[in-house]
Amino acid sequence: MSNAQREPLCLVRGSISKPQVIFLGCSESHWISHRYRRVFPWYAAVWPFHAGLTCVTTVPTVVRPGETLSSTHFERRAGGKGANQASAVAKAGGRVKLIGAVGEDGAHLVRGLEATGVDISDVIVDNSEPTGRAIIQLTPEGENCANYLLAPPLLSSPPTSADSSYTHLLLQNEIPWSATLAYLEHATKINATAVWNPSPLPSAEQLRAIPWGSLSWLIVNEGEVCGMLDVLGVGGDALQGSGQKTSQHATQLLEKLHAHPRFSQSVNVICTLGAQGLVALLSPSGTKKADSDVLHVPAAKLSGPVKDTTGAGDCFAGYFVAGLMEESAGSGPSGVVGVLRALRLAVKAAGLCVQRPGAVESTPVRSEVERSLGLQ
Questions:
Q1: Among 13, 62, 300, 302, whose Cα sits 20 to 30 Å from the Cα of 291?
Q2: What CATH fold (topology level) applies to the domain 3-16+44-49+80-131+152-372?
Q3: What pLDDT digit, counting tens, does each position of 304-349 carry?
Q4: Residue-wise over 260-293: b if at least 16 C-beta within 10 A, else e?
């Protein structure tokens, strides 16, 4: 059965965590961006999930090896890329189901996700394991770096026949690698649209083994594109400069990735560029060889200061997948026009997200985004 014959449903198979956020008093945002954005980009995307707690601390600068700093503020928040993204799909108006696990200390996170409209019927509460954790350092400028402790091992469970009703699959890299591969294979079997953001960046061995033909969309930042090209043996210089020069360089990197024999030209690739927006390389349509479409979407204009970039990538991914779901259901424009509409909506949602603290709680609802775009 094709996606057009099924009511759109997004399956998120990923993480739920308890982010712990450290607020930094005087930040070195450029250093943070350079060192951490390859591994923890602020534009990322997801599914099958890990859910957990996020611990956030505010400190004067990101801690270096051997350095001890005093933080100025501490928070515990709901988070995990899977939880963040599932919530974003729901807030964008899409039907979404989350499969994952939390410990007994994470039951309240599951109730919070249900309140946003996420189907949590397959989220397991495992009393024998703690909920996953994310430890985040946050600067006054809103930049962040993070490390993760994965959620309970139940996340390794493969898909079952009961999971076959979804039309869209959103994955990140916060669940066991075996589960990622199993769900990509399953999505192919049921003709579902698979979206993957490899964050944190997988190992070289994993990237060589990924079944690229099972993917419909790949969401990366420029550091991840360069990392992939390095693994594939062709290399790619990191982007420098800004504006048109940066978008042109990103396009060249995506074209190099697209042309590699180990990659699949059927995969559409989005490269996020922070303040320069994003570049999307769409795969050629039809059976005959054709040039790929290249789209550039500028970053959203902010009405206030950046407060927290922690959940912006997940917000972007969730809103983008919701846009794809609308296109498949015929409730939005199709083709390149439909993709461009979904990208613009996702960029605006992420722009609103960074102007408020948090991850799950910072994602705007659909009416806010449309109002900001002048659609209401």
A1: 300
A2: UDP-N-acetylmuramoyl-L-alanine:D-glutamate ligase (3.40.1190)
A3: 998 888 788 899 999 999 999 999 888 777 789 999 999 999 999 9
A4: eeebbeebbbbbbbbebbbbbbbbeeeeeeeebb
